[in-house]
Amino acid sequence: MRRCEGKGSLYLDLHRVLRSDEQTPAETFAEDVQKKYRTLSIHDAGPWLKELRMVKSPAEIEEIRRAIAITDEAIRRMWSHARPGIMEYELEAHYDFTLKSHGVRELPYLPIIASGINATVLHYEANNQRAEDGDLVLLDLGAASNYYAADISRTFPVNGRFTERQKEIYQLVLEAEIKTIEAVKLGVTLQHLNDVTKQVFTDGLLRLGLIQESSELSKYYYHSVSHHLGLDTHDIPDYSAAMQPGMVITIEPGLYIEEEAIGIRIEDDVLVTAEGCEVLSSQIPKETEEVELLIGKKE
Ligand code: GLY
Ligand code: MN
Ligand code: MN
Predict the structure, then answer these.
(1) Structural domain includes residue 299
(2) Cα of 245 to ligand 1 centre, how many Å?
(3) For residue 40, what are the domain limits?
(4) Whole-angstrom distance, CA of residue 227 vs CA of residue 175
(5) b/e map of 243-280 (b: 16 or more CB within 10 Å)?
(6) For the chain, N or C: smaller number of CB within 10 Å?
(7) CA of 140 to the centre of ligand 3 (A)
(8) How far, in Å, from the CA of 151 to the mean position of ligand 1?
(9) Residue 29 Cβ contacting ligand 1 at under 6 Å
(10) DSSP letter string over 4-68?
(11) Same domain, yes or no, for 191 and 251?
């Protein structure tokens, strides 16, 4: 077969969402194609695709809804099998079971199943420790549907009962989540949403005596509250884009108190609408009483 040696142009999405040493599939493809067709010029279509990808079509939103529905089922299965002494990877096995039962065999990202102090490690993925009686377990995970990701975090007591202290911190994270979701409106930026979260956390941590001044907040809250969600879990890294109808973002405040082995994050996926927003993952319980009722209760 003769090789095509003529000049030509190939446009690929070469935009890197995450900085990492690993080659992206698009980069690998570009390299392979370039080796075969040396005169071909390859261009990055990322900037145009970014605009297109930022606002989701109804069909894309349906895919995200399906990914969330599977994630919901998986979380409920993990909760129903939870008990003190369970290994994090046993919980992961229940997660995998649900996803594979729905034909989801490729994960958008490795699930985080972090018990006790592990939950204070931001990207904990070892999932190889035992969840002891009294531990909270932080889940951050998501299924995919036709490559569209869900991205959900829930935190639960492995023995089915939050302690008063755990509840106190949990309620503050939940308050931050609810107030930040209320702030999702046309025209606001992710930066603004993060400011809302930071204000709730600062007030709450001062009230609880965990910090003495606002500059200390970063000791307990050290990531941002939102990112776009879609084909990539961290879909479009544009923190200054104003919210438009059809954008799908996460809201994910968390507090990490290492000295008390408490790490709590609550994360929902939110669709921006003309009126404000719709929480696409609202069916996944997050009030403490609702969560407690589902732990260790086999269907
Ligand atoms: N699961 C990654 C994140 O929440 O951003
Ligand atoms: Mn997440
Ligand atoms: Mn997220």
Answers:
(1) no
(2) 22
(3) 2-44
(4) 19
(5) beebbbbbbbbbbbbeeebbbbbbbbbbbbeeeebebb
(6) N
(7) 8
(8) 6
(9) no
(10) P-S-EEEEE----SS--SSPPHHHHHHHHHHHH-TTEEEEE-HHHHHHHHHS--HHHHHHHHHHH
(11) yes
Q: At what angle do helices 88-101 and 58-81 cross, to 10 degrees?
A: 140
- CB of 77 within 8 A of CB of 289? no
pTM for this entry: 0.91
Residue 191 lies inside a defined structural domain of this protein = yes
Whether residue 141 sits in one domain with residue 34: no
Q: Which of 162, 170, 154 is nearest to 91 (CA)?
A: 154
Tell me what percent of the residues of the chain surpass a pLDDT of 90.
85
pLDDT digits (tens, 9 = 90+) for 66-85: 999 999 999 999 999 999 99
Say whether both 60 and 82 belong to one domain.
Answer: yes
**What's the pLDDT tens digit per position in 247-293?**
999 999 999 999 999 999 999 999 999 999 999 999 999 999 999 99
Tens digits of residue pLDDT in 42-56: 999 988 888 889 999
Q: Is residue 156 domain-shared with residue 30, that is, in the same domain?
A: no
- Pick the ligand that lies closest to the CA of residue 153: 2
Return the higher-pLDDT residue of 297 and 124.
124
**234 or 170, which is more confident?**
170
Counted domains in the chain? 2
* Residue 267 beta carbon below 6 angstroms from any ligand 1 atom: yes
CB-ligand 1 contact for 232 (6 Å cutoff): no
Q: What share of the chain is helix, strand, coil (3-state, %, to 5)?
A: 40, 20, 40
